[in-house]
Specification:
CATH class of the largest domain: Alpha Beta
Number of strands: 11
Number of helices: 10
CATH architecture of the largest domain: 3-Layer(aba) Sandwich
Shape: globular
Structural class: alpha/beta
Bound molecules: NADP nicotinamide-adenine-dinucleotide phosphate
Strand content: 15-25%
């Protein structure tokens, strides 16, 4: 078993991103600029946004944060997004999800200029990705492809089983793994909450990608020997044993699945760190006008 080590890969790729950001600054006199919008005080969202901003600083990007209380109206939020769209100094905009119930996340996502949609959630980017056209790729699936590439994981002709079909992880991941490129060229099966006997499918997986949000859902009896496992799950549980006051668990029972796998991501220290890399790379591409000119 070998770890797919998000810490190692993300640090390496951050070095490359920092180098490119310095080139942009030298050429244009400006830094790539990511703007995050955070609504309310959800603990997870606060942590993710703080980490995104810290990572921007580490690679020499400019970052800014727009904060709203949870009672902000949808109209007010959409007005702010329009302002950020029109601001020529901003290369990438992210609105941290989840949003309070009275705000429609799809409406907000579609309001972001697709040319600044560095989370890659806008339908135009998703459609272009499906067509294999230049686009911003959703940050988590993008980060996973970078991880697979770094370890030279063979994907052509393999059976990839994706558990979870969300718009931000499972669904785009399944499209990427089926595309005619590397990593890709897999035969892909998608499982979700209505799939009967999921074990029947996971046992067939050469590559198993799990994104459902259920602690230790995938157990050792559900995987075959030699499987490559990518655990996207981030299940937070309060803990008195950690400084932060919580502990993270994946969707995979790491302790018992790892011995059967050829490669596996840990949680934490795996996909989460790669998601940030996906976001930084999209922001860099936007600053370089690589995707939409
Ligand atoms: P989501 O929007 O809640 O979607 C969950 C998906 O899992 C749905 O497709 C659902 O099926 C499926 N599912 C739920 N319970 C299931 C079960 N018992 N058996 C089979 N399928 C089941 O979640 P998400 O946003 O994709 O996130 C999934 C997990 O990844 C969460 O733990 C989240 O925190 C984590 N995450 C991590 C990162 C990272 O950077 N590491 C990024 C994003 C998300 P239906 O469609 O049928 O409801």
């Amino acid at each position: 078993m070998q770890l797919l080590d998000g810490k190692y890969v993300s640090e390496k790729l951050k070095g490359e991103i920092a180098h490119e950001a310095a080139n942009i600054l030298a050429k244009t006199g400006r830094k790539p600029h990511l703007c995050a919008v955070l609504v309310g005080h959800d603990g997870g969202s606060e942590t993710y946004v703080a980490s995104k901003i810290k990572n921007c600083e580490q690679v020499g990007f400019k970052s800014s944060l727009v904060r709203y209380e949870a009672d902000v109206t949808e109209a007010e939020l959409l007005k702010k997004v329009a302002e950020l769209n029109a601001d020529a100094d901003i290369d990438g905009i992210i609105v941290q999800l989840p949003l309070p119930k009275h705000i429609d996340p799809d409406k907000v996502t579609e309001h972001i200029d697709y040319r600044k949609d560095v989370d890659g959630f806008h339908p135009i980017n998703l459609g272009r990705m499906q067509r294999n056209l230049p686009s911003f790729i959703p940050a988590t699936p993008y980060g996973i492809t970078l991880m697979l590439r770094e370890y030279g994981i063979e994907t052509a002709g393999k059976h990839c089983v994706v558990v979870g079909r969300s718009n931000i992880v499972g669904s785009p991941m399944s499209i990427l793994m089926a595309r005619n490129t590397y990593p890709g060229n897999c035969t892909v099966t998608i499982c979700h909450s209505k799939t009967p006997d999921i074990k029947n499918f996971t046992l067939q997986a050469d590559i198993l990608i799990v994104a459902i949000g259920r602690k230790n859902f995938i157990t050792a009896d559900m995987v075959k020997e030699g499987v490559v496992v990518v655990d996207v799950g981030m299940n937070r549980e309060t803990s008195t044993l950690t400084k932060s006051g919580y502990k993270l668990y994946g969707d995979v029972d790491f302790e018992n699945v790892a011995p059967k796998s050829s490669f596996i991501t840990p949680v934490p220290g795996g996909v989460g760190l790669m998601t940030i890399i996906g976001l930084l790379k999209n922001t860099l591409s936007s600053a370089n006008k690589e995707v939409y000119g």
